Amino acid sequence: MGGVQVRATLLQIEVDPAETAADRRRRAAALVRAQAGADLVVLPELWPVGAFASDDFAAGAERLDGGPTAEAMSAAARDAGVWLHAGSVVERDPWPDGPLYNTSLLFAPDGTLHTAYRKIHRFGFDRGEAVLMAGGSRIVTAALPQGVLGLATCYDLRFPEQFRLLVDAGAEMLVIPAGWPARRLAHWRVLLQARAIENQVFVLACGTAGTHADVPQAGHSMVIDPWGAVLAEAGAAEEVLTVELDPSRVAATRSDFPVLRDRVLGAPPR
Ligand SMILES: NC(=O)CCC(=O)C(=O)O
């Protein structure tokens, strides 16, 4: 039996070093405003600077309270009247000389910052984000009227234990902004489907298009249902991907095929 439909739109924006962050912010804000009528709009990881543009992280760092991306996305969410997962920004906290974090921002339809999530797993091994940023330590969910979101970012995708904790915290839709490289597109697709299947959740994963810091981006933003079926998938170029999803599919899938009930290792007490 079908329930209320949720309209979700992923904005797979191109990150091009020839465009300034200010211009890209204006363009992203206009794209968000054009989505009035959607329930949830999602942007990718670190789209103001570029997820691999680590030389620009310090100069592009922002505060969550009054920073240029937070201000622009708050206004755009309010004008469109949508829940906006604004992807992530380079956050510096405390301002002006604290550590950097890769922080995702979720705005409510009235423009207030509802939830922030600091990426837990930092990518780069001994370089880039892994050495320039501090990691978050909190599992973050957000209860929306349309369902409970579980927040994770890009490289987190490779750590399934984080997603189990999100499911234990009630997540029904995983929202994963990313700046995933084209050369590992095959991993992206398999890992996203695996996270959806093993946790019986919707996955909404929004990547970037274009090439920055000499790293061609995969694009291929995806929306996957709790059975692992791909509901929508973008190509490699900039694209607006809209899908209608039925949140009641989470409970229905878990009841029809109750694998989560059979967990033995690390399962919460029943
Ligand atoms: N921005 C990232 O976290 C990139 C992750 C990545 O390239 C990978 O896991 O592969």
Bound molecules: the ligand NC(=O)CCC(=O)C(=O)O
Total DSSP E strands:
14
SSE pattern: EHEHEEEHEEHEHEEEEEEH
Number of helices in the DSSP assignment? 6
Helix proportion range: 10-25%
User: Major beta sheet, specifics?
Assistant: 6 strands, mixed
- In the sheet with the most strands, the strands line up as 5-4-3-2-1-14
User: What count of structural domains?
Assistant: 1
Shape: globular
Question: Which class do the helix and strand fractions yield?
Answer: alpha/beta
> Rounded to an integer, what's the Rg over CA atoms?
17 Å
CATH domain topology? Nitrilase/N-carbamoyl-D-aminoacid amidohydrolase
For the record, what is the CATH homologous superfamily label? Carbon-nitrogen hydrolase
CATH class: Alpha Beta
User: Whole-Å distance between the termini?
Assistant: 28 Å
The CATH architecture: 4-Layer Sandwich
Low-confidence stretches: none
Verbal overview:
- This protein has 270 residues and is α/β, with parallel strands linked by helices.
- It has a single domain, classed as Carbon-nitrogen hydrolase (Nitrilase/N-carbamoyl-D-aminoacid amidohydrolase), CATH 3.60.110.
- 23% of the residues lie in helices and 27% in strands.
- It has a 6-stranded mixed beta sheet with strand order 5-4-3-2-1-14, with helices on one face.
- A hairpin with a 5-residue loop joins β4 and β5.
- α1 runs parallel beside α2.
- The radius of gyration is 17 Å and the shape is globular.
- The structure holds the ligand NC(=O)CCC(=O)C(=O)O.
- The site of the ligand NC(=O)CCC(=O)C(=O)O has 11 residues, from loops.
